[in-house]
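Re: the request from the purification team.
They wanted to know what the chain is likely to look like in 3D before they choose a buffer screen. I agreed to run a prediction and write the result into the notebook, where they can find it.
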Amino acid sequence: MSMPVSVLAPDQATPDRILLRLEWQVIRRLDGLLQGDYRSLFYGYGIDFADLREYQPPDDIRYIDWNVTARMNTPYVRQYVEDREITAWFLLDLSPSMDFGALESMKRAVLIDFVATLARLLTRHGNRVGAMLYGGRVERTLLPRGGRIHVLRLINDLLKQPRLPKAPFTDLTPLLGAGLHTIKRRSLVFVISDFISVPGWERPLSLLNRRHEVIAVRLWDPREVELPDVGPIFMEDAETGEQLYVDTHDRGFRRRFQEAARRREAALTDMFRQAGVDVMSLSTEEDLVRAIVRFATLRQQRRGKRRRR
């Protein structure tokens, strides 16, 4: 049976209670399903530069050193040696659209649960995690550290991050640009957002992916994709606050709404493909354990295909 992503009322949502709930209801289940082997999620991230050599198929194009390639006029790839320590960063979109969803499972609440779960999985094995909190600009940067106390501090900062007033638009480019300038050592980078943004963020995402292993975690709510038939309602733009009166009994309107959502999904898929990043799709109504296991399985399958080539 699926369990809700968030089960605590807002006044109960303290860092200790959130982490304790996740340790019992999410992390223990993940330990059982993945048998403690998280390499399908985190493989190859704790690595240091070792050498350069000419590109040979089926080398991963993400390891191409573009500066050396330009000088030598032939593709060169960087080689790395694996280090047991992983440094992970969370680039977190906390713009107004992240406050969309049912009261008990808004996108922001799912973001907190996901970040706390992954941060605890990493730090309990001696790894370090850092974060950038974005709300129109980078509001706060937590440098990478390890330990349970650091995870609690990260949760606390997320809980205290104020909900922003409506804004004309969200632009993820400054967040990704800050990641490019701040993260020096090759790291595992989670970009967590609904990716409701003005265009242009795909280029800095691609540049970030050349330097690091990037996973884009796209949060979404089913009501953003398909309208329920509930009669006349006021719809509000989560970013601008603009309201529109619509009749959801109108099948034609629901069909046009669904088609617009389909076009947005196709455009996002194309942008992620151009950037070359792995994407995890996470719904506000999906069981968090099931979503993580599904993603780990897909990554393991893709890694197997790369090895067989």
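For the purification team: The CA atoms of residues 89 and 130 lie 5 Å apart.
Please add any questions underneath this entry.
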